[in-house]
Amino acid sequence: MKPKVTMIAWNQNDNYVVTAVNNHLLKVWNSYTGQLLHDLVGHADEVFVLETHPFDSRIMLSAGHDGNIFIWDVTKGTKTKHYFNMIEGQGHGAVFDCKFSPDGQHFACTDSHGHLLIFGFGCSRPYEKIPDQMFFHTDYRPLIRDSNNYVLDEQTQQAPHLMPPPFLVDVDGNPHPTKYQRLVPGRENCADEHLIPQLGYVATSDGEVVEQVIGQQTVDQDEQGMEPSILDGMIRQLQLQQDQQFGAEQESASSGPQNGEGTPRRG
């Protein structure tokens, strides 16, 4: 195999350079002389994460597609701590990214299965206040492009940035209680009735019908005189504001300079 460097990082005081090579070794170099000081052995697959400690120049973190997370002492070339990201029933999860906290007491990692792993000193009780599974109900909704090639949400025909804040759901699309919905930016001060999403049955690409959070009332519901959803009202209000703003701009443009010297407008 032809050796290739997959990642490189300086330690905190720049005395050492650590390189990750595709033969699964980490190499520690003297940054002034270029001398190879240590080979760090432990990974079984390619490494794409190298993170230096925010203030301790001895410590370097590495993580890779083999699911291994190592804390190294690069001055001695030794392994300090090791964690293997084993997922029950699914094998190991490749680690895609890691970052230290500013105080150096914690670090967080994300893996290929959508997990956020938090390591560190102290009590884990604060993290027990939130659900294990947190997704936005719009995370996997399809997008389309309009005639101007702008992106729209397929279901609501709205630009994603104009849509109301999404709801927090679990991995199966079931909404979390209202106390968790207030964690979403934009919903902090909402009344309880605004934090209860509308549920409906949605057909998946495989033809399976599942109950999920839906974002807009259907035409059939309008015809049947069913009670409109809170989310529908918010979307329609946003659309009305946008239409009014667009109308005001058009009126301003028509009453502006007629000699062609006015500000150019995008169609």
Automatic annotation (TrEMBL):
GO terms for biological process: cytoskeleton organization; regulation of cell shape; regulation of transcription by RNA polymerase II. SMART domains: WD40 (SM00320). One of its GO terms (cellular component) is nucleus. It comes from the Eukaryota. Transmembrane segments: none annotated. WD repeats lie at residues 1-39, 40-82. Signal peptide: none annotated. Residues 241-267 are annotated as: Disordered. InterPro entries: Bromo_WD_repeat, WD40/YVTN_repeat-like_dom_sf, WD40_repeat_CS, WD40_repeat_dom_sf, WD40_rpt. It holds the Pfam family WD40. Keywords: Repeat, WD repeat. Residues 251-261 have a biased composition (Polar residues). This is BRWD1 protein.
